[in-house]
Amino acid sequence: MNQSKLEKEGISTLTLATSAFIELARATTAGTGVLDMSFVVVEHPMGGISKEQIRAKADAAFPEIVKMAPEWRPQVTEGSSRKPAYPAERFKFTGTVEDVNKLIFEKGWSLGLPIVPPTPERVKAMLKGTSRSPNEVLWVVPPRNGALTVELLAVHAAMAGCKPEYMPLLITIMEAFSEESYDWLGTATTTGSEAPMVMVNGPIMKELGIAYSSGCLAGGNHANVSIGYTINLIGFIVGGSVASTCIDRSVLGSRANIIAYFFGENEDANPWEPYHVENGFKPTDNVITVMSGDFIPLQELHCRTGPEVLTTLSSYLGGGARCFGGGAFVGPGSSKSYFLVLSPERAAILAKDGWTKDAIRKYIVEHAKTQYGATSPKWSAIPEYFGPVTPETLVPVFGRPEEIQIVVAGGAGTHSAYVRGGHGSIVTKLIKK
Amino acid sequence: MTETVQQWELINPDGAIVLPPRGKIEIDSCRPVTLEGKTVALLWNAKTNGDLFLGRIGELLAEQVKDVKVIKLWEVDPATKQYGPGALPAELVKKVKDLKPAIVIGAQGD
After folding, report:
1. Chain B interface disruption, residue of A5, A9, A14, A16, most B CBs within 10 A
2. Could you tell me whether strands A394-396 and A369-371 are parallel, antiparallel, or unpaired per DSSP bridges?
3. Domain that residue A306 falls in
4. Do residues A44 and A110 share a domain?
5. What average pLDDT does the structure give for chain B?
6. Residue A364 and residue A229 share a domain
7. Contact B6 A237 (CB under 8 A)
8. Which end of chain A has fewer CB atoms < 10 Å from its terminal CB, N or C?
9. Nearest chain B Cα to A250, which residue?
10. How far, in Å, CA of A213 to CA of A210, rounded?
């Protein structure tokens, strides 16, 4: 939150938050290092209403603002923790497996799907998959700021049914999510439907049986499903990103907020360098790449040449690559990222016709366009060098070729997808065993 | 089939909440006791209509608070109009600080 950055520099602030976002704003405050801030609540919504309605809301809120600004003083003055991060709290319970699941759900410790009861024996077995110390804090998960120790990660991995050998991969994933540039807080609390995405490269895919071919985002693969489930259990329980408490503000949410997007790159069918090699790693390195986003299918069945494939994909991307009404113009200078997930058959057609990844990116930037009039002018800040625009002017939806990441995944067939990046940036990390 | 009732030892999966230390800044000692004659800066996070709302608050402050000076930060530097972890980097925080506001009123959320 911007205001907390100011508070930490000794600048007093007062934050106006709408009634739908006040709980999120309060929860976010502690995570920024400021324990207490002054808030004035304004009736939701602020967007999508007339100037007159905005003015009326401001007039109604003003007396409290002008009173709070000089009078409010912080109530919470010292940091504290209710219990130690390690070892995690143990407790006794009598009942059936079904009773355990009912208890866990009622306490807000599950997403609604069944869990494997997290017993000390199961957690101890899970910890055998790593040499990392169980008391090491991997991540303080926002917005709740729960301390995720290696032990607690093993608890969640056990609940999701993971195998001990997944632990090094899980640890690396958590370390990637913990990086500020990933912006877990933003993705976990946004009104959008974005969800965590993890792509795996390297020999570890075959060692752990990670799906990268047909249906790699579907069910039926133990590693993909249980790791994807673990990710969201941690976000929900340790991070407190819960819609019913008004902390997760997803308008609709996503099924990938239950089982996160988790898949391997189909290196066997990739006619180009695998993604991790393209980014400076060795082919034998095991690497994860994480991003927050939405998978959007790109359906095309009948293209037979590289130009046909790219023309069709660019048409799709030009129409829907970005929500212009709520975002910025994706022009040069944009820091957004997108994954183009090509099916092996489409990648093969392009490579056979001589298309490199760089050539594909350049083509898409030049051809994926939309009419300026189809965007919200207020938000679509056209760079000055672009020159004058009319509602009919075709403007690019991608600014720079490097915004577009190209990977190959999935099995036989033509369907591809793109992942529209949400909050934060791509993080790529080496998995250390 | 009847499920077996067992005695379980289970591990609480929620984890300890870590509250960061407050830091060196004694916030209450530097908060304003009045807005009269002071500078009030308005910080818009770029969400829809936040500028209109804050603009109206600025008008009301100017009308009703004696000798108050209102600054719309997004007019001073459009780069302040951001949200997310990259918003308001150190150089912009300094820029705000150099304006010596008694308080910054910011809009948060949608």
Report:
1. A16
2. antiparallel
3. 300-414
4. no
5. 85
6. no
7. no
8. C
9. B110
10. 9
